[in-house]
């Protein structure tokens, strides 16, 4: 018991645990799904063009330049785009805005581990909907009363993609709830997998994206939502009730510059997809079970070698994976797709370990 | 009535209205209390040194470099410092963390207009404590049951400073509540006005600061809190339950660099204080009532000329002031202290207007 009178009045939460961010440049960092290829030359140019006088002034609170660039990119009007400090900020504000209700929201039992943290902090009730035995999201399982639905597509950490038809069926069956599709990894999925084009047809759809993965800009903290103007307006009202100036000057102008740089962007995505496919094949040859990935990471387990053992041994060699000590997935590792030479070292390391242990 | 089933479930708030951010470089912008002097040469140097590879990676979630530089600057250990996306982010998280209770929190009736917005959004009950007739915060008025207290010192938009003794009496009389002293403008007050040095003595004290005013970095969005390690830990838990990576890479390294640059910083503060004193004198000579300012702005009214009239006429001439249409202060204007040549133009304009109207 604390001696402090104020102690009982304080909000106590169990926070989300982010992946480690070791500073050592020599490690092979495959634990936080960053893009191994840096941003393009265009960004370097824009950094040099930053206007010192704009640091002194408050940024444009609507981050209009960035919002307009995103609206152009997606071919929507600018009142359909909301930006935030990474997709975590966009999702946190979406939870605050859209799930202000007594009914339980639904999300998968195995998914982005921030969802239950936001719900707990904001006092939102939720129900975990189990993935199938094959770790897939089953649309029918969401066909029940709810106060909202959140699904990442592809899901994380499973990397498995859900079909557009399944999402449409969820949207149709929960017309009175907001359905958030978290497309953090969609750029690594086959073209045509996104549901951004459905925002006009389904007024309950909010699609969330990030610059941290495919756009190679985790360090800049930019995320966004695309939805209909009504829902974007509600989101903005909450944002303006929380912090009028969430986006700083560098994130607005540098964020805008990378959107224009689409060829470079497509190039790195294609390289990552190619590496993902060859790496998955090699993992399977080593006896790993690898879930079919549409993301920039794979989720894999080995029948003979303990995941914690692999995780620990890898770390000793300076290779960082992500491990979740959670039901159903505690024998899996999430491995971000790095550059080819990094994945070669990973394969060599795993080959040695599997041979030793088997 | 809306046709949408989800409409009733959405959080509806009346957001804070930030001051206008016109893009035109020719205007005299005295409406958002920015520093007219840009950041130092040191910042320009650091911008050029930004490491492109750090944009691809998630920033350090604890923003350790920045936290350590602030801890050094204030001579406290690093577990006593919390950083956020401007002091608005720090205050919003403080409201979420510390006012999680059924009792009313207290703040002045005339103060930073974001306080009631946060309280309303987060469902926190509050009671406005009237300033005295002279627009001063009276310590005894806070000597009543409460779930927390928030006071900016100097207060805004009045610019009036409260004594350390008064703050100490508030801290002593509300030991079971968290008392937030928002020191956004303290660097423009006489030395020794801050209460940061009291955080060890009073375990219920949280002091909030910003880089947006004296540090000339509104565009970077950096704010911080200094308090005891327990309260900082609770704040961090809420932060990690909301967004693990609120501070982007530029804000961490550039923020750090300006802390080191203390001589430049002191120099611009002294210039602003000097201008504030001469400008206040001239306003008084024009018949204005000017509240005694310890900030980088003045709060003034004229007995013969309507504040809205001054506001509108100034805007036509490209001079932006801030006006609050609120009880007791709707005859006042808040005027940020700009450079001497800007204030000369403002004085000339006001002289003409007052002569015409009187």
If you had to describe this structure to a student in words, what would you say it looks like?
Chain A is of the alpha/beta class. Chain A contains 11 helices and 12 strands. In chain A, the strands form 4 sheets. A 5-stranded mixed beta sheet of chain A has the order 2-8-7-6-5, with helices on both faces. In chain A, helix 1 runs antiparallel to helix 8 and helix 4 (86-98) packs across helix 7. The mean pLDDT of chain A is 95. The interface between A and B is large, with 89 and 90 residues.
Give the chain pair forming the largest contact, with residue counts.
A-B, 89 and 90 residues
**Helix segment tally of chain A:** 11
**What portion of the residues of chain A fall into strands of 2 or more residues?**
5-15%
Uncertain parts of chain A: none
Termini separation of chain A (Å)?
51 Å
Q: Assembly state here?
A: homodimer
The assigned structural class of chain A equals alpha/beta
* Order of the strands making up the biggest sheet of chain A: 2-8-7-6-5
Major sheet attributes of chain A = 5 strands, mixed
Topology order of chain A in helix (H) and strand (E) letters = EHHHEHEHEEHEEEHHHEEHEEH
Principal-axis shape of chain A equals globular
Q: Report Rg of chain A.
A: 21 Å
**Total E-strand runs of chain A:** 12
Name the average pLDDT of chain A.
95
Kindly state the percentage of residues in helix of chain A.
25-40%
């Amino acid at each position: 018991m604390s001696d402090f009178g104020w102690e009982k009045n304080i909000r106590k939460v169990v926070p989300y645990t982010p992946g480690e961010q070791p500073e050592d440049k020599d490690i092979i960092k495959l634990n936080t799904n960053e893009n191994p290829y840096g941003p393009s030359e265009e960004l370097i140019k824009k950094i040099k063009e930053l206007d010192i006088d704009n640091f002194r002034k408050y940024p444009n609170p609507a981050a209009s330049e960035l919002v307009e660039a995103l609206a152009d990119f997606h071919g929507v009007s600018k009142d359909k785009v909301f930006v935030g400090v990474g997709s975590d900020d966009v999702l946190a504000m979406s939870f605050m805005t859209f799930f202000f209700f007594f009914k339980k929201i639904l999300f998968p039992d195995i998914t982005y581990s921030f969802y239950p943290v936001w719900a707990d902090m904001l006092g939102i009730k939720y129900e975990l909907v189990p993935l199938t035995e094959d770790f897939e999201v089953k649309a029918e399982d969401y066909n029940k009363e709810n106060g909202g639905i959140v699904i990442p597509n592809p899901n994380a950490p499973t990397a498995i993609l859900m079909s557009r038809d399944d999402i449409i069926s969820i949207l149709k069956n929960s017309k009175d709830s907001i359905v958030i599709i978290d497309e953090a990894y969609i750029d690594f999925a086959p073209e045509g997998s996104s549901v951004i084009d459905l925002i006009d047809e389904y007024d309950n759809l909010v699609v969330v994206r990030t610059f941290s993965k495919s756009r190679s800009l985790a360090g800049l903290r930019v995320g966004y939502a695309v939805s209909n103007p009504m829902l974007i307006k509600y989101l903005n009202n909450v944002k303006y009730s929380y912090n009028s100036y969430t986006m700083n000057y560098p994130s607005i102008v540098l964020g805008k510059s990378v959107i224009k740089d689409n060829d470079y962007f497509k190039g790195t995505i294609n390289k990552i997809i190619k590496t993902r496919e060859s790496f998955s094949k090699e993992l399977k040859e080593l006896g790993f079970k690898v879930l079919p990935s549409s993301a920039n990471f794979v989720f894999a387990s080995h029948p003979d070698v303990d995941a914690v053992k692999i995780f620990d041994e890898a770390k000793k060699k300076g290779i960082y994976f992500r491990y979740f000590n959670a039901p159903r997935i505690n024998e899996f590792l999430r491995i971000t797709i790095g550059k080819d030479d990094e994945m070669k070292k990973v394969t060599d390391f795993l080959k040695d370990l599997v041979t030793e242990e088997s």
